[in-house]
From TrEMBL:
Example of a GO MF term: thiamine pyrophosphate binding
Record-level GO BP terms: thiamine transport
Leader sequence residues: none
Keywords, sorted A to Z: Signal
One of the record's GO cellular component terms: outer membrane-bounded periplasmic space
Name listed for the protein in its UniProt record: Extracellular solute-binding protein
Keyword Signal assigned: yes
Amino acid sequence: MRWISAVIACTVLATLVVGGGAGAQGGKVVVYSALDTPVTNAVLQAFEQTSGLRTEALTLAAAGTLATRIRVEKARPQADIFLGGSIDFHAPLANDGLLDAYISPRLAAAKLAREFYNAGGYWYGWYIGALAIMYNRDRFEREMAPRGIKPPATWDDLLNPAFKGQVVLPNPVTTGGGFIFVAAQIFRFGNEDRAFEWLKQLAANATLIPASPAAITLVSRGEALLGVNWGHDIRAMAVNQGFPVELVFPPDTATEIGGVSIIKGGPNPEGARRFVDFMLGRLPQDINAKFGLRYPTRTDAPAPLGMPALTTLKFVNYNRQWAIDNMQRLRERWQKEVGK
């Protein structure tokens, strides 16, 4: 297993340092966002316009890293809102007493399916993402096609020895996509040990990336041949930008339920509640579908342009509660057995 360069790792650390103590200023809603910057900015601007409140954001597309920051700041929380990232990362924070419960009066009007909100009001799901495979079309046609190697169509295709050192994966310790990918393999095989044996084989071909967008950049530039990431991010950041990147949703893929939650003890609890109310409305989901190409949880919000209907994708039987309950153990096992 090769690790991405120290330059990217240092960039992530620097990003976390910027904004330290941001919550100390009053009159703002401070948001830790695991979304991409354009969507984060568009959502916060819309909230400011409708609420009259100001916002400040720390944006890092690595939900696990942001969740760790929330834990580190437990004694003196610096932010009000945890935005984006799968509920797989929000739920453990709630279990450990780091989130505030809030039953929004807008929940009924949102008409969310039961799987998209916590009954206790600790988190709300406002978008859906699906994992996909991406590959650089130009490099594939130049280097692989002449050897008779077909583009990947399934998870098992990633084990092809021809791809050694050319697969980029989001780190399951720092990113929601990486963790859900690992859990999806467990559910696909129906056996945790068999899944980890498969993951060890994949590790021989792979490089771990600490934040998901960096993997898409590497494939877009042809610095990596192929990888795994969220389908909406691949299309928005690569395909729609004109890069020679192909997007494949393999059978037995898995979803994230992107969440929003209130950080317990944050500097502006009233502003945080107003933010959650806003996020349950249609406008943020419209923005997310248009710019982030994520699937909405509200049935009255538009589908993302250029993305396949969610009902056409073939999903693994993903036991999200089991994944949440075993997250820490699985991440530790990954670090011990695979991600050395």
